[in-house]
Records
---
Amino acid sequence: MAKPKQKKVRQSPQAIAPSTSSSLVYEVEMTRSAETVYKDLYRKAKEAELKADYTNSNCTTFDMVKDVVKRIIPGDPINRKYALRGELSNVFRIRKGRMRICWIASSKHRRVCILFISETLRKEGDASDPYVILQQMVDSGTLDALFSQFGVRMPRLHKEGHLGMPQ
């Protein structure tokens, strides 16, 4: 007889502070668009749980993103292995499954701002490519105030090329 799956109790998306009590952990903030995606992933996972479908891909996806937001990013946000290249070398990203999460960090203020959580698959050059979307956000100037507030060097705008997007 198969063992029944154990029920997980999902925390509210407002509880995004890191679970560790270390003073080395960074405070995490999100842009409105990143928070919207995070809350939507939470809602979909919660709906699956209410149907007792704990193996649903929405549960898996939210758990991956929550782990990144609560543990991985706050614990080591300025690790160069997460850095983009070129003009966006002060922007960091992590791949979890098919998701991309991009952020900036201030070591001086010990704060992180998640700029973007992708909802699309990566297809280089495609209009829905997460890195094209991030580049458009940077080019539009909508993130300028955040870059300034965090003391992160502003990328120079380029109309024609990729701004440090990984291949």
---
Amino acid sequence: MLFFSSTCSNAGENSISFRKTGRLTPVSEQCPKCGAPRAETACPRCGLVYDEYDPDSVNAKVPSAIVELWAHVEQHWEDEGAHALFVEKALRADQAGFVAACYRQKGDEPIAAQQLEKLTQRLVQALSARMPVSKARGAGAKNVLYVFMFAIVAALVFLIFAETMK
């Protein structure tokens, strides 16, 4: 989906973007996808092209129950149980990106940073559990060793054969 964008910038928070939709949306100083400091046209960290980003299309894929849980978390920010329930339900709905975006929008807020760290650890752990310990990696190294040994033996046989032919 293409957007026509014109950005007016007076100072960070006052920046606006007008898209083909005709809505004015605030332009944050951070990438809406990864939270990196915002560059001119695209994020230097994740590559998101800002003019092609449509937050409504991203949020449309998030189940309403998850969005409601996030609203509950925001109302009960100090409640660890609310955070835990939100993260658990969102991950079960395959919405890790939404969870991260919600906490990233809070900037340097300590609880948000803590929740992002927990989320990262949990996702790394889940990814590690899904990755089978590959015998192929060990076998690949073993195969390289066999090929190297074969090459040495072949070279020795060739040298011996060449010496006997003189």
---
Amino acid sequence: MKGNIRHSAYATIACGVLLGFSAMTTAAQANESQPNSAAQLAQLNDTDQASGFQVGRSTQGGPSYVGAGVNIGALGGTSLGDTSLSVISKVGLTNTFSVRPGVVTDFTDDATFLVPVTFDLPATRIGELANQDISVAPYLGGGIAVSTDGDVGPLLTGGLDIPVAEQWTINTAANAGFIDDVDLGVSVGVGYNF
């Protein structure tokens, strides 16, 4: 049994790492395919403004990111309700919507995959620290939570993104999964912006 659990935890980490690399590769490929004429640039801008949809784009709440953190479980029987490690991410889709896939695991029981779509509110300046503006960008959303035990249920999430440097964002989130019972966890993590 322990071998299966350990294998599941390693597979969870591998999925999180692959997700992060996939998102960064997509962003790098987008940067490589820069238009090389004014006409191409104008056409690209018209297309972006018309559709507004681009995987990995920044939202009004800030840039996309991938990172790691700690989940502090408050309630429930899955790893979401236990104190565990987490892989976090934000992948912007439009100016106001993003998907925030993540994984929480305690490496001994199970892992829970979280896939919420969120509405990202604009960043609000709350002060200054060491001559740098500090802002917070709240978000709310919902999606699904999938446990490696085979249970699936709805997920509600809300939190704050706090950009702390050009390449780093602190993320805090409260997640409520309705898998078997109510699973509740609060996470804090750091993400690398792309």
---
Amino acid sequence: MKYLVKSIVLLLFLFSQAGKAQGLFTTDANGHERWEFILEGSGDVLQIALPAGAGMITLIKGDYDGTKQLAYSYATTLAITYSLKAIVGKRRPEGREQYDSFPSGHTASAFSGASFIQRRYGWKYGWVAYVLAGVVGVSRMEGPDGYHDFWDVLAGATVGIGSTYIFTSEYVPPHFNISFASGNGNYLLSFNYRF
């Protein structure tokens, strides 16, 4: 435990020094620090990267049932999110005259991808996806414009996770395998079944 605390303190110290060296904590004319823009940009990228990465995983594994489940859950996430935005009409907290704050679409998208990875392939990869989705949620509240408040982000995460849990089941690798080999006039047909 002491090692963990020391490591965290060391990393925080190094981050603070690196930030000073590269100007992360310099402010612009509106009082926003550079790290806020970096955080917001990271959230913008991750909101697409998580569901796209989940889709790529299904294709690489040849898990076409998973691809279909991801498509259903992601489409449901988007439909619910944008329907709620239109129905609720909550004003954005940074003061613009936009009434589409609730729920956060970025957060719903990111948590849809993260929860799919966790639900379909387990916590081995899921925890990393959830941490990245959490970065998206924080970026929506702490970015330079503060597009959402805590409740918007929580609702977006709930929609993303809930939609995924409706359509997604755990991945079960195929138990049956057929292979064929030939050479020098010999032919081999094999059947493998794993219990």
